[in-house]
Amino acid sequence: MRTARGWTRDRGRAVGRARGRVQTRDRGMILVVVLILLVVIGLTAAAAMRGAITQEKVANNLRLEHAAQTQAEFALRYCEAQLLKDKAQRVAQLQDVDDLSALPMANLRWNQSSAWAAPPGSNTKLAFYELDAALLPSNGAPMPQCLVERLSVGNGGEEALVVTARGFSPGYQAASSSAPSAGSTVWLQSFLYFE
What we know:
Elements: H1 4-84, E1 102-103, H2 113-117, E2 126-130, E3 145-153, E4 158-168, E5 185-193
Parallel strand pairs: 1-3
Antiparallel strand pairs: 2-3, 3-4, 4-5
């Protein structure tokens, strides 16, 4: 028969062995849980990083568009102000606007790339002007441009001037298609009616 002391010892060994098995199983389960948590944290961090990169691209695109908008607005206002002056006081490229042939709306050329590439004075249907650096400091973008065409309005022989301006953002690069390959471009247009 066992003594109380021996019984306790045997019982202690039995309990100790059982506890050792449970601890080993717990350690394996903890490792699996920790690995799953690490994967979840990694995926969350990757998603957050991707979202931050996307937001940065959107913010940069808005900045480029705003810069191009500012350039186009300046070009439009400058050319409008030039057209309101007497012929002799205008910049040379816009002095002959009064002599332009009036065209119907369907024949205006502001949306054709060839019209913007024409050298000044080479066409009797439009007047092209590229602002120079003395008027507007360069920000690394092409200088803003304006194009003026005379529009026949209605059947009464009335005419208006169509002023189209283009502004470019820093880093602008033209592509073969209508969309730029880098940067941004903004087009603005106004109609000036004279009585």
